[in-house]
């Protein structure tokens, strides 16, 4: 498909300075073709900030994102790193510390509304702290929040005030973690945007970031969301994304399994209990994803016959869009309390301390790992 701007003299957004394009609304610089004759000419993201005090999500690939991150270390900045608690290991930016240098980091852990209401929040914070330590990420504060339920945002705003000083605020995160909601709340609380943006171009903006002026002369810098290929949410189409991403609190599903039994999670992934004493496993997945139990010896044949129909989503029309499955064998030691995690899909909690030999089958490239139990 040809870009309507192709062959024209290069047009740049008068708001953020990025080169405009009319092909892909998910990439920086997008402008609808019908808006090209407006004056001033601004991209869709700047238009939304100016007219609605609202930022929309823009994504870039991993290499481009790392290039943008590398600029932060040389700035005087407060960094807000927002992650998705449902997909913590999949959305955490690995190696963030080496990019931000000595700049302070606030870790905003979003989507806490998905956890059961009986969750012990102090234990959740301790769990997050241990995970950050393993990743070498130093944080000034960890704040549990829910963009959807507007929980924890008052404390997050207080933390920004506590740690910002005369710094600019950089907001970083992967796609689908709630970054735009956070930006929008910061805009409403810290900036008189209507007055600022109707009289001037956004100051200090680089090509793939939007710099939003604050009342004290500093800025909120909205960085594009990074697309991590190991997250299930980056592989599926929009229809199936709605099936695997939970919207309501997770309802843990407990299964008592004998060795030699298998659980299919729709047609998205498969869990094998290969060896061990009879024990229970708790599945934390979207309630819209059906779980089907069968014998391990019949699992391959069942998938061949029923993938895309009984074992769905994805349906038969979209099966070919996903990579072939890879088998990940995971041995759970005796005494260990572990989750078996599938990035973007959820996790299986091993409830017994008797030990087990297990395997997870998921599309090639999807991050699969064991971790200390979150709950």
Describe the structure.
The protein is an alpha/beta fold. The protein folds into 2 domains: 55-226, Rossmann fold, CATH 3.40.50; 234-372, no CATH class. The chain is built from 10 helices and 18 strands. It has helices at residues 44-52, 62-69, 88-91, 96-100, 121-135, 153-164, 179-190, 193-199, 238-244, 296-306, and strands at 59-60, 77-84, 105-110, 141-144, 168-173, 210-213, 219-222, 225-226, 253-257, 261-265, 269-275, 279-285, 291-295, 325-332, 338-342, 346-350, 356-363, 368-372. The protein has a 6-stranded mixed sheet, with helices on both faces. It has a 5-stranded antiparallel sheet with strand order 9-12-16-15-18, with no helix packed on it. It comes from Paenibacillus dendrobii. Residues 66-229 form the CP-type G domain.
CATH class of the largest domain: Alpha Beta
* Poorly predicted segments: 193-207
Mean pLDDT: 85
Structural class: alpha/beta
The CATH homologous superfamily of the largest domain is termed P-loop containing nucleotide triphosphate hydrolases
Number of helices: 10
User: Helicity, in percent?
Assistant: 10-25%
Question: Secondary-structure element sequence?
Answer: HEHEHHEHEHEHHEEEHEEEEEHEEEEE
Pfam families: MMR_HSR1, YqeH-like_C
InterPro entries: G_CP_dom, GTP-bd, GTP-bd_ribosome_bgen_YqeH, Mito_lipid_metab_GTPase, NOA1/YqeH-like_C, P-loop_NTPase
GO molecular function: GTP binding
Domain CP-type G: 66-229
